[in-house]
Amino acid sequence: MAKAWGLLRFVVVYELRLWAALFRWILRRPIPVEPGTERFEYVGAVRMILGVFIGVSALEIPILHLMVPWETVRIALLAIGVYGLIWMFGLLATMRVYPHLVGPAGLRIRNSITLDLLLEWDAIESIEVRRRSMPPGGQTQLEDGVLSLGMASQTSIDVRLTAPRVVPVRKTRGEPVSVIRFHADDPEALVAAARARTQPLAVKNR
User: Fold this and answer.
1) Under 8 Å CB-to-CB from 176, ≥6 apart: which residues?
2) How many whole angstroms from its chain centre is CA 77?
3) What is the mean pLDDT of each successive set of 10 residues along the chain, which is 206 residues long?
4) In this structure, is residue 87 part of a structural domain?
5) Which residues contact 204 (CB under 8 A, 6 or more apart)?
6) Which of 4, 106, 132, 135 is most buried by a 10 A CB count?
7) What are phi and psi of 114, to 5 degrees?
8) What total number of domains does the chain contain?
9) How confident is the model over 78-114, as pLDDT tens digits?
């Protein structure tokens, strides 16, 4: 019963945050961030895939409406189709509203509303551009202390930590990680912004 309630709570919170992100995106009201913080997108890796799904869903609505002869069923399918179409726009909106952040507090790695991982600058030993294709096994993978947080089965940035740490990512199951890989649409710009934050710390700690 506790698991069922936990799942229900997750679904409800997810839906509410998705719709809130959709309204923010439509109204062009980004979530306020700390002064000096830079935003970096990652949606480019899946934009085409989402576009295809949205296009197919949009086509299905009138096709099913014409093919199904029963009025009640047509109305039900129309409602489901429209909701699904809007939901996919909402998913796209979450990726635009919750980008990666590079700011005074550290590097925040995000993926829609399912991941928000803050790495403080003193926890980062190095960060570099490294484009990789992920093997089959999902978009989140852990192997030998290396956590890959992929988008469309790819990562483009490697972050090496100063010490292994446990991160709030379910796939790790409490196992510490020493390297985190993730994707950004413009990895060079993100890495440059991050190094501008980490290099003064490195000099200071010498």
Assistant:
1) 145, 164, 165, 166
2) 30
3) 79 93 94 95 92 89 80 86 92 96 97 95 96 92 95 96 94 94 98 89 55
4) no
5) none
6) 106
7) -100, -15
8) 1
9) 888 899 999 999 999 999 999 999 999 999 999 999 9
Q: Which two tokens stand for residue 5?
A: 């309630």
Q: Would residue 174 count as lying in a domain?
A: yes
Size (the chain), residues: 206
Query: CA-to-CA distance for 158 and 148, rounded, in angstroms?
Result: 9
Q: Please report the DSSP string for the chain in residue order.
A: -HHHHHHHHHHHHHHHHHHHHHHHHHHT-PPP--TT-EEE--THHHHHHHHHHHHHHHHHHHHHHHH---HHHHHHHHHHHHHHHHHHHHHHHHHHHS-EEEETTEEEEEETTTEEEEE-GGGEEEEEEEEEEPPSS-SEEEETTEEEE-BTTEEEEEEEEEEEE--S-GGGTT--EEEEEE--SSHHHHHHHHHHHHHHHHHHT-
Is 152 contained in some domain?
Answer: yes
Residue 100 in any domain: the answer is no
